[in-house]
## 1
Amino acid sequence: MAKTALDKDLQKIASMESATDQVSRPLVLPGIALIFLVGATIVATVNVADGPIAWLVILASVIAGYMALNIGANDVANNMGPAVGSRALTMTGAIVLAAICEASGALIAGGDVVNTISDKLLVRHDAFPVNSFIFIMTAALLSSALWINLATWIGAPVSTTHSVVGGVVGSAMAAAGFSIVAWPVMGAIVASWVVSPLLGGVLAALLLGFTERMVLNRDDKLTAADRWVPILIALMASVFAMYLAVKGLGKVWDASLVQTLLLGVAFGVGGWWLARPWVAKRSIHMENRSKSINRLFRLPLIFAAGLLSFAHGANDVANAVGPLAAIVAAAQGAGVEGAKVALPLWVLAIGAIGIAVGLALFGPRLIRMVGERITKMNEVRAYCVALSAAITVLIASALGLPVSSTHIAIGAVFGVGMFREATTNRGIPNPGVQPYTLFLNLDRLNATPEDALANDRKRERRMLVRRQHGITIAAAWIVTVPAAALLSAALYGALHLLTGSFM
């Protein structure tokens, strides 16, 4: 009996330990994020000079860290999702690669100075006293971070840039009215909601169509791969060399248009020269199947994902620390009129580390959404998504279009999915058309001819893109700017009320 009682007591203890583990596990990730925010607070406290508004700068530093966490959780999925969905990278491998590349891009190529978002959005910077300007930037940061956090929770990849835009516009209008906003710029941003995904989707579909026609649908796939895969790899090398010159290495090298084009040609030729023997060697023992050819794109896809993350870190770190840098400059007496502000290393570090930490802690959910739940990926499709994203950004930069990398990447994912669906269902009539003559196996199905035929065709027509995810994502895109603006305006008023200086 004593032994039985002891066993029961031990079982109760084990059950309590298991229950405690189940309860505490969901608190681990927020706990690590909180540790990072405490570290950001300490770093800001050490680096901010004493003064009457030093506490505002420290508060803004914590909010910037929170914003960086959310950028890592939401935005990086666009670069890594297709690679994970195609099984070219494991989730752990994608997180490690993205964290290294994002942080490296932010720290190496993040820039000595950043363009303040308010420079293009607001008509006059000198319309605000220093305190009011700091409140505008702080409210913008917090509102955009909260909105991105909500979007991540519902599983919608949104543009972090548009979130910050909405935040700045909302708090600025609360401070100085509608006339302070440069509405033509806002109009161009709204237009980009349509332009970005369409460009990305069309280019991705064209690339996939070309690859299938020239390689995957050929009878002799290996010979076609030996000819065309090195050319596609050379195209990737050329595009990404120009992409990094334009979007990722502005701090290191301010390349002219001619230099950028020459760089693209040089890397394209070099990529082709290196890829030819590599493809030929790998294809010797391959089977003449599409699945085998797909493996040739695995390594180029991993490079593409890493380069996209590097460029993303270099550019979008400004969404987290750009407003903070403007706040630091204003607090130090540099004023608020300049288009550019200095970017201290400690400010840049908060953004870089925050993006990496946010990705590692909260990124897997949206990575799976982008890579697995919209449409099925393989290496070729994911490669087309990554390459089309880089090409679209280059075209948009050349034309001066304010496109969103998030919208482009998601549009590209839908583009390859819709292309697959269209080609798979080619020649299969819609279920609504029900000629009796095509009906088969009536007795076995035990249904009316019309119902049986409709069911037959529903099974034949394959829906390869989950529309519901598209509706959710599109709704989140449309709501992003106004939602962030309304929240920012409310936070701006709250900051004035809390400080007793409502103007």
## 2
Amino acid sequence: MSYKFIDLFAGIGGFRTGFENNGCNCVFSSEIDEHAREMYKANYNEETSKDITQIDEKKIPNHDILLAGFPCQPFSIAGDKKGFNDTRGTLFFDIERILKEKKPKAIILENVKHFKSHDSGNTLKVILNALENIGYTTSWKILNAKDFGVPQNRERTIIVGSLNGIKFDFNKIEIKQSSFIKDILEDDNGQIEYLNEDEYTLIESPKRQPSGLIFVGYRNKNIRIKGTRENTNHLSRVHKQPNRIYSSDGTHPTLSSGESAGRYFVYHNERVRKLTLKECYRLMGFQDDFKLIGSKAKLYNRIGNSIVVPMVEEIASQVKEQILSKTDKIIKCKKPMKQMSLFDFSIYNEVG
């Protein structure tokens, strides 16, 4: 069965791609950023609606699934963790009014890792309570991109809700074997940007971290002196991420929405090179035929704001299996008891 979904705060369509790859059909999308809308149209041949706060929920098509990677800024460290004290934080309530009107069978929300601890956990509690008051049974978990075959250590809070009392079980999500940065690198076609040896310093005996990262060195850039390690002018406890170098034999740190210059450097085949734009999009699970339009700065911003496609694909598969298929059985069984066959009754007991 093909299920219908809406894609709110759609970005460049990471959520959409993952659900379409599971046979689902997008019937509505919304995104306020102009460049993101241009990329969305180029890749999905569809105009998105703009400001969700100005859209009448009654005019949104009926759908089975609501997807929303609602803005991270109010809940992330980078956004000073203002949450509902920031007017952008109230965008969740546009999701709420759509849910009240349309009552989709399932909802999937995504936010940054630190969303769970914002305001001592109160922000998450407010949202879960709001969903449950509408009638949704919810569960949530922090998932990491590196567990879905993508060599990026990118943790995100995922909330799944069901309208018919089915609690989503994250333990059924299939974890894949980790891959490495070297697996997504392009061949050297003469366009790869390398650093000269005097532009970086390698450290002795680098170690693989539990996250899979292997920090091997740093660019020789002047940085804040406070916290500088002994006998080095560069390596500091507050060393900025764009100056760090990681081994291609490990995973990559989180691609940042605030990095507009693409300063991601890896040590590969005994040389330090910058990741290409295509490689950054591969780190998010997008295929090479995904159209990249606009300036490089905007393209780096877009990818840092996206969601990892293979992770979405597995979530979509499990939402269909755990929630939507069982919801369909429940709906079919909503007959008066006297009209039920023994077979109907057995199914009703099994799923209800």
## 3
Amino acid sequence: MSSGITLSAGVRANLLSLQNTASLMQTTQNRLATGKKVNSALDNPLNFFTSSSLSARSSDLSGLLDSMSNGIQTIQAANNGLTAVTSLVQQLQATVSQARADSSAGTVTPGTALTLSGTTNTSNSANNKLTFTVANGVAVDIAVDGGVTAATLTGTATAAVDAGAGSINITSADLNGGAAVSVAIANGDTMAQAVTKINAALTSADANTKVSASLDSTNHLVLTSTSGNNITVADAAGNANTTTAELGLVNGASSTNGVVGTPLTNTAIAAAINNHASLNSQVKASVDSTNHLVLQNLTATSVGVKGLTSAAVTGKTTDTQTLAAGSGSGLSTVRQSLLTQFNALRTQIDQATGDSGYNGVNLLNGDSLKVNFNETGTSSINVQTKDSTGAAFAINSTNLGIAASTTGVFGDNTQLDTLSTTLTNSLTTLRTQASALGSSLSVVQTRQDFTKSMVNTLQTGADGLVLADTNQEGANLLALQTRQSLSTTALSLSAQADQAVLSLFG
């Protein structure tokens, strides 16, 4: 609304100039006060929203840095645990070496002999082994049957199938539940192509088929059943001999059953047991004057045996016997002390791994740690101790294969050697896991450094769009103050011109 006051043109022009200067001074003073040349979208929409976007991403990435830092500490905690476990395993290995070097080991009086009441080995192709469970739960198998000779059916033709193409039926007790498998043979197929089609049909009908086709050195078709059961081949039409004849097979031809291996004699079984390196100095086998198999435990720990009854060798896993432990500790004072040290150190392995967690995550227990590297979660790393198959792998004495030891182990040099090998393998496993954790730690640290650089870049870019140049704004304010002073003087001169009319009334 107009004030009703009339100003001369000169006064109004100088007034407007003074008002503009005051507005500019206010803007400049605001920039100096806030340090920004763009304080809202009204100042510069493009710069304001671009800077806000860059600042937001910088803030998101800054938040991830804390997660990365926690991830690094978690991995380092796990690595500390691995270092401790590695040291403990090395001490275990030293303990075993000291025990092995002690030549004053005690002696064990063999346990009561188990003499089988019968003399016949009743094992067969399906039940054909003895399994001895010795120290540390190690299972040792001894074959007691000759196995099965495969059944085969061989053709006579060697050329391509050039006439009478059709289908054949292949039948065997261990194929497709005994049902015939039909195979289509095309006119013009070579023998090799026929073999390919037969194997494809057999596998399709029965993924676990024991029947297969091949060519011998003279290009004859050979059908083989590893189970030893008959193989029968017939023309699918049932009343023709065209396709089977082209393959060199007589329609309705059948193989001869494979030969089941002859069960080993008691003497042969005893020799196999005594000659097996893992049973040497642990189990003794012999045959008495009446051909009975005699088994005796040479250690101070009982030995389980699967595959025999008190009467005979059967090869069945459901038939079990126990060889009585021998008497006496079999340990010298030195070895007994080292055994106690060994089991005490082994206990510390599980305690060390259990104490290797950080912020609720223990990688040595098989826990998984996910560390995100960007604000959307599309870039990350999952850290977890894994075995060779990629499955989660907890670091503990059980998974490392280190069982609590016994007097039987420390009293037997052969078992001590086996235990030493186990510990060596455990050290290899620990070094592999440490290498994997080290690689993951390097990745997280690299991404942490990268994220810090990105945060700095984003923030610098955001600030460059909105921050004011304080030197320039200071110079602007000084100039505006000068302009304001001049504008005030000019306004005063304009007003004096208007006041000259008063002299006419003097």
## 4
Amino acid sequence: MPTYFAVRRVRGPAWIATAPMRDQALWAEHAAFMNTLAAEGFVLLGGPLGTGEEVLLVIDAASEDIIRARLAADPWTDTRLLVIKSVQPWTVLLEGRAGPQDPHK
């Protein structure tokens, strides 16, 4: 059974409530940073929940300390656009098939 971490981040005090996510300061830098974490396999899944006030990340890491250290390098962390609400270990008990399946398998 794989164990990952579910990380919830929320909008911080620097977030401009009237501006969409992509219009927030340092959007391009934040997006590039997160894409790198995903390409490395550190972030497995991520994105806004519901109306977007909260973000859920599924992370493959050895510890909460590693997660906090890696996310500290996000431009949106230093500027307080996003803050960590919680980091919880998540043991996956169910795993279905995701995405389109190759009919030839």
